[in-house]
Design a protein that fits this description.
This protein is of the alpha+beta class. Helix content is about 30%, strand content about 40%.
Length: about 130
């Protein structure tokens, strides 16, 4: 069964949103925002507990980024973190574009992105 859920965060300068699609036990999470949402990077996080060390809760991740886009690290961190916390395979795509963004606003968007990922993990753990 495929299930879709949405999360939105609005600020006066931008909006971030996450769409979650469940596909069996696995998840696909699309995070987009700003004035031109897109896909800038996609990362796959795989829970590997027991595959290499049965004592540790571990995950591994890989990322593909569109040349010139800077969302790769965000997607990679989110996919690995969510797969480890949720103990499942997770794909995270990220595409956030804000025209003329300042360094200060970049820091704010990154902070909000991490907050969004934390909220997603709490919500999904509660299911």
């Amino acid at each position: 069964m495929i299930e879709t859920r949405s999360f939105r965060y609005q600020d006066r300068d931008y909006r971030l949103q996450a769409e979650i699609v469940s596909c069996g036990k696995d998840l696909c999470i699309l995070v987009s925002g700003g004035d031109r949402p897109h896909i800038g990077a996609a990362a796959l996080g795989v829970w590997t507990c027991g595959a290499f060390n049965s004592e540790k809760n571990t995950a591994t991740s890989s990322v593909i980024s569109v040349p010139g886009h800077k969302e790769g690290q965000l997607a990679l961190e989110a996919a690995e973190q969510l797969s480890k916390i949720l103990k499942r395979t997770v794909v995270v795509t990220v595409g956030i574009h804000i025209k003329g963004i300042s360094p200060e606003l970049i820091d704010k968007v990154v902070e909000e992105f991490h907050g969004l990922v934390a909220d997603l993990s709490e919500t999904l753990l509660a299911r």
